[in-house]
Protein: Iron(III) transport system substrate-binding protein
Organism: Sinobaca qinghaiensis
Amino acid sequence: MKRKPRLLTVLLPAASLLALAACGSDNGSEDSGSGENNTEQNSAEEENAENDQAGSEGGEVNLYTSRHYDTDEALYEQFTEETGIEVNVVSGEDDELIQRMEREGEATEGDVFITADAGRLYRAKEADLLQPTDSEVLNENIPENYRDPDNEWFGLTKRARIFVYDPERVDESDLSTYEALTDEEWEDRILIRASENIYNQSLMASFIEIKGEEEAREWAEGIVNNMARDPQGGDRDQALGVASGEGDVAIMNSYYFGQMLNSSEEEEVNAAENLEVFFPNQEEEGTHINISGAGVTQHGPNSEEAVQFIEFLSGEEAQDDFSEANYEYPVNPDVEPSELLQSWGDFEEQDINLTILGENNAQAQMLMNEVGWK
């Protein structure tokens, strides 16, 4: 039986990474004294040490993350409450954090790297920034196709690359596949962001794997021909463009649409409430899926705590919160999607291991550049 979703009630500001100083003590020197006074002193010191350890309980874990959601911050606080392990957060752009770890090398303070898109996780692995993690918990909580074959990274949340459309101008029966959007009937009607966006690169990489290079190229060229405007803005901007009449169908990540429906910006809410969701390729290979994921860094000082932290994020409570509060699909098969996500309907997913998205990334970028995808 699925666990009933619970609401997050604690939000906290992201913590800053604590400065870590190598302050060793001279614990190697032997005690030159003996007798009752020394015994009592040693007992007192041992008791104080035990008390200090009990106070800190699990130590700390240093997190490098590109995610910036209140949901995540609340989960970090919950993890600390349950384990005593402090979570020190360094936030940054995905590629900047990868470059930072490369610069820091063996001196890095980062223990866990969290980023969006399997392509970026692949980059971190190829740069030898992650280490294999042997965890029965992670293997049980995360299906094989959402984790690295060498267990160097693990998916934590899923998002689908969906269509959103204006039902006043588009009949749902006219929608079918990503490939069908290259037909002449969709000329000047498609909105999608730039080729430099890794979500589009990963979508293209999946086509290369499933359809082959030539069909992938033809798809990219057809999308360019049918764009309603030159690519601009993020995923939410594509939906806003459909709502304003600039285009009729937008390609975007599902969780962005959930965020729009629950946004503090009235324009986003109004736009999303007048649009509909469609999952493409249901009669074909399935809808493209990507992930947000995590890996234990190669040289971090707190590897055991890092594994414990990722295991916590893959558990049912954390997975529930990701879905309820951030509108992401859980990777843990024992957790149901939130009511909002369920209201969009069930769908079939592409059946590929997501490491392919990284392996095919360079080829995807090359093909998109060749067809003039700006």
Remarks:
- Residues 57-158+290-336 form a domain with the D-Maltodextrin-Binding Protein; domain 2 fold (CATH 3.40.190.10).
